[in-house]
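New here. Your pick:
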Amino acid sequence: MKYKKTEFGYLLKLVQGEEIITELNELCEKEGIYSGWIHGIGAVESVVLGFFDVELKSYIREEIDDYFEIVNLMGNIAVLDGKPVLHMHITIGDHEFGAYGGHLFSALVSVTAEIFVIPFGNRIERKLDASTGLNLLDIE
């Protein structure tokens, strides 16, 4: 991963073989980013998507091994147990122009990924929500 600090955040360039979530976590740790917004494009393979089943209160995971364009990568950074935690969603398109989307657990970069991270400058916390079983943003 290469990245550059800009006036409004960080511009990242990921290359083939790098895993998106791992690299974003590394950036947050290196730069002390505890809350923020993430947006990106690029191309990936070996993607693990999730869909939250409300009744089961757990994610259904699906691993897809193919090459895809990132139509949209977005998410946020917030604090849980004192550490930055990513909440990422992705929409990917295949060679037949079909699309898949959901919660992003992992994705390997196949060509490049160009990602922008905008830190909020303050800490936004996550807190367990008993009704869903999820750690939701704690905005009061």
Observations:
- The longest strand covers residues 58-80.
